[in-house]
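Hey L., structure's done. Input below.
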Amino acid sequence: MTTATLALALTTNPLSSQPAFAYEETDYASETVTNVVAQLKSTAGDVDGTFSTLDDIAKIITEGKGVGGTLTYNGVKLNEGIAIADEDTTIYNPGLTLLTSSEKERLVSAIIDNRKAGLSTQNWSENNEYAFDFLKQKLDPLHMHELEGYLGILPFYGAALYLVALFVQKNARGVFPIAYGLCALGIFGPVFVLVATGP
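Output:
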């Protein structure tokens, strides 16, 4: 693909300003997950109600409460009968194994929205924060929620910085090590900032 082709494709099909989710609203989500997400929306700003709902989510993760499928020594079997793990996963957070990626994303979005609502109305307790941190770490350990917008532009941004580094390497070799370091910082710096500032 040439630069002209890429430029033409971007001008005729601009990038969406909406965040990209790996799930669609019509994707399957178990009744347990949809009920908990609805509970989180209805308890936003209620300290005790939120904590109770966050506790329910913790039970889904740690016990597999209400999530379809079974865990045995032969691995994980979903209701459809498909084996998705070849080991005994009952010893560590079996619910995480039974939840689909889209269900995890829905839960992460819901707990972040609930936290924002609680913080904005100053109805957020230390227990809620502890539960939020536990759930966020279990459901989104790689901080994909924080990075999703940046990862959407990273290929284009990285290509631009790569071209800048190539230009400096060809035309100003003496400052190339500095330019290379700045380009690397330009790529990885936003990741550290986004993860550090959190949701």
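The chain has eight helices and three strands. The radius of gyration is 22 Å.

-- N.
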